[in-house]
Amino acid sequence: MIELKTLKTEAIPSALEKAEHYRLLNDPEEADSICLDILAVEPDHQDALIMRLLALTDKFVHTGLNPTFEQARDIVKRLDTSYCKSYYTGILYERRAKYHFEQGGPGSGSVAYDWFVKAMQAYAEALAGCDPDNQDALLRWNSCARFINNHPEAQGESDHPEGLLDAFETPH
C-alpha cells in the first residue's frame, strides 16, 4: 500500500478552495480526496466536513447511494450545530430524492417524494432554529416544493405533507 503524504496545517485554506473548485468542475472524487487530506490533519474541520458531505452527494449520480449515502450521514453527525445538522440532513435527503427520481422506473417518483418530504422536514427544523437573516433553509424548502409541483410523477398521496406548511406560516 502506498503511504499518503500529510497536508501542512497552513495549507488547509488553500486546499479547501481547491476542493470547492473541483466540486464546481463536477469532479467529486478529487474534492472528496482533498477533504480527506484536510480531515486527516484536522478531523473536526467543519468546512471540510461540509465540503466532503457535498462531494459525497455529488457522487450519487456516478456511483449510486452505497456507500456514499451512509458516509454522508455519518458526517452530518459530526457537524457542530443543530442548524448545520438539520440543514445538511435536508441537503442529503433532497439529493437522495433527486437520485431516485432520475433513476426512473416503477415507484421511483413515490420514493423520491418520500425523500423530498424528509428533506423538507429537515429544512423546516433548520429554519426554526436559525438566525432570521439566514434564509438558506427556506430557499431549499421552496426548491423541493417546486420540484414536486413541477413533476406530477414525484407527488405523493396528498398535496401537502402533514405539518410541512405549518413550519413556514409564522416567520421566526
Q: What's the short story on this structure?
A:
This protein is an all-alpha fold. It folds into two domains: 1-63, no CATH class; 81-172.
Overview of this protein structure:
The protein contains 8 helices and no strands. The radius of gyration is 17 Å and the shape is globular. The protein has helices at 12-24, 28-41, 46-58, 60-63, 68-78, 82-103, 108-128, 136-150. The longest helix has 22 residues, at 82-103. The protein has 2 domains: 1-63, no CATH class; 81-172. The chain is mainly α and 172 residues long. The N and C termini lie far apart (53 Å).
Distance from N terminus to C terminus (CA atoms, Å) equals: 53 Å
Computed over alpha carbons, the radius of gyration is: 17 Å
Unreliable segments of 5+ consecutive residues: 167-172
Q: How many helical elements?
A: 8
Q: List the helices and strands in order.
A: HHHHHHHH
Whole-number count of domains: 2
Biggest sheet features: none
Shape: globular
Question: Helical content, roughly?
Answer: 55-70%
Number of strands: 0
Alpha-beta classification: mainly alpha
Mean pLDDT: 91
As a percent range, the share of strand residues is under 5%
